[in-house]
Amino acid sequence: MSLESVKTHFKQWNRKNDVMAFETSSATVEQAAETIGVSPARIATFRGEGDHAMLIVAAGDAKIDNKKFRHTFGFKARMLTPEEVLEQTGHEIGGVCPFGLAHDLDVYLDESMVRFENVFPACGSKNSAIELTLEELSEFSFAKEWIAVCKA
Q1: What is the mean pLDDT of residues 140-147?
Q2: Cβ atoms within 10 A of the Cβ of 124, count?
Q3: Exposed/middle/buried for residue 18 (C-beta within 10 Å: 0-12, 13-18, 19+)
Q4: What is 2-147's CATH topology?
Q5: Minimal CA–CA distance to 124: which of 13, 8, 29?
Q6: What DSSP state is assigned to residue 80?
Q7: Using CA atoms, how far apart are residues 80 and 113, in angstroms rounded to an integer?
Q8: What is the pLDDT of residue 1?
Q9: CB contact burial 95-119 (16+ within 10 A = b; e otherwise)
Q10: Residue 93 CB coordination number (10 Å)
Q11: Distance separating alpha carbons of residues 95 and 2, to the nearest angstrom
Q12: What is the pTM (predicted TM-score) of this model?
């Protein structure tokens, strides 16, 4: 059902038909990159963090820098459990995205993605993605702001 909530989300921009569904899994960064035919860094990844759940979207090769995170948000980063991810986002791990969310979560975009014109976030399932410009990603995810919380 998660893929359908994402497609419904994209209707408002007439982009529902741009959501790609694959025969093979795209649940990991490596699988998604191989399936789509791009470098793993261009796969937009998502991390749930903190006591107040939030989503941070970063490049596929980026890792959270705990010191930068604490400096930006004022608390220590904590990954959500798979159960918390599903409850908060409505998406299972491997398909998590900032679109069609079950709850209104704060979404932040990490500057690790600015080296690319386009990225490929998942679309709510373990075998889906959409190609978006960074401007589209920001608009369609209702991102609060761009941040720098990943290691260089």
Answers
A1: 97
A2: 25
A3: middle
A4: YbaK protein (3.90.960)
A5: 8
A6: P
A7: 22
A8: 59
A9: bbbbbbbeeebbbbbbebbeebeeb
A10: 18
A11: 8
A12: 0.92
Pair of tokens at residue 129:
């993605």
Look up residue 75 and give its two tokens.
């608390």
**Tens digits of per-residue pLDDT, 62-113?**
999 999 999 999 988 888 888 988 999 999 999 999 999 999 999 999 999 9
In this structure, which amino acid lies at residue 126? K
Q: In 3D, which of 141, 145, 130, 136 has the Cα closest to residue 21?
A: 130
Q: Is 68 exposed, middle or buried (0-12, 13-18, 19+ CB in 10 A)?
A: middle
- The predicted pLDDT at position 80 comes to 86
| pLDDT at residue 20 is higher than 90 | yes
